[in-house]
Amino acid sequence: MLAGKFTVRRMRRLSERVAQISTEYLDAMERTGGPVDLMTSFAYPVPALMICELLGVPEADRDRFRQLIADLVATFNDPDVPLEQGLAAVEETQEYMRDLVAAKRTEPTDDLLSDLTGTELSGSELTGVAVLLLIGGFETTANMLGLGTFALLSHPEQLAALRAEPALADRAVEELMRYLSVVHTFTRSALEDVELAGQVIRAGETVALSVHAANRDPARFDDPDTLDLRRNAAGHLGFGHGIHQCLGQQLARVEMRTALPALVSRFPGLRLAVPADAIVMRPDRLGVHGVQRLPVTW
């Protein structure tokens, strides 16, 4: 039901907004001057506002929406945030989404959530879908933007290649997805006995699948531990596979192939503001790999 809503037309329209929003936040970074935390200054706000566009969050609600996302980010990123505070942030988000769903039923606009109000989904189901799209749509892409920038700054020859050849953006996104695999583990349960490479998986058994291992498989990718933006990384599992493949993968691609080149071209002197080994990785609360903060300057 949802897959058909991520149309080429809608993604093309959102592409223009990604460019506009990226420019706005890069302008703000330039006015502020370095060092800044790239996560809060760029990596989180860009996909968060794109989810606003996708769900049709009214302009008047954008500040509240950004605060909701900031609270959720703190829940995911900060191990010192108490569980009760995290649950309160999720409940407030659900409450806002319930109100938004009701508003879209009464007065639909040209957005994905309004489209879905015309389906058989109940109000609670629509609220669940909206929360799923919010968390799934900004958390993974934000961490890809942060980790992707970290990887490029740690591989200056690859950074220089992307800056010199903006046409590399498409391949760069796929290679970064392969190399980093921010969603690193899937679980699947067998519906019937299956034999794979001499190993029998019995019906009802659950298997944990390492996306990192698959995306670094030397039988599939030559020199897999090397970041190479010119590589043809088609077939990586960064977006999953089969019927559970990432619903918003085209939106994520649009955001990354627009925002990353814009960042590196705007700041030719972009560099880490702290030693690489001082970058702290985020706690793995959602099964999403990332950094807590990414201090950069230029």
Quick rundown:
This protein has 298 residues and is mainly alpha-helical. It has helices at 8-32, 38-43, 45-55, 62-77, 83-106, 112-116, 123-154, 156-164, 169-180, 211-215, 249-266; strands spanning 36-37, 185-189, 194-196, 199-201, 206-210, 271-272, 295-297. The strands form 3 sheets. It has a 3-stranded antiparallel beta sheet.
Describe this structure in words.
- The chain has 298 residues and is mostly helical.
- It has one domain: Cytochrome p450 (Orthogonal Bundle).
- Helices cover 55% and strands 8% of the residues.
- The protein contains 11 helices and 7 strands.
- Strands 1-7-6 form a 3-stranded antiparallel sheet. Strands 2-5 form a two-stranded antiparallel ribbon.
- Helix 1 runs parallel beside helix 11 and helix 3 (45-55) packs across helix 4.
- The chain starts with 7 loop residues before the first helix and ends with a strand.
Keywords:
Cytochrome p450, two-stranded antiparallel ribbon, 3-stranded antiparallel sheet, 298 residues, mainly alpha, 7 strands
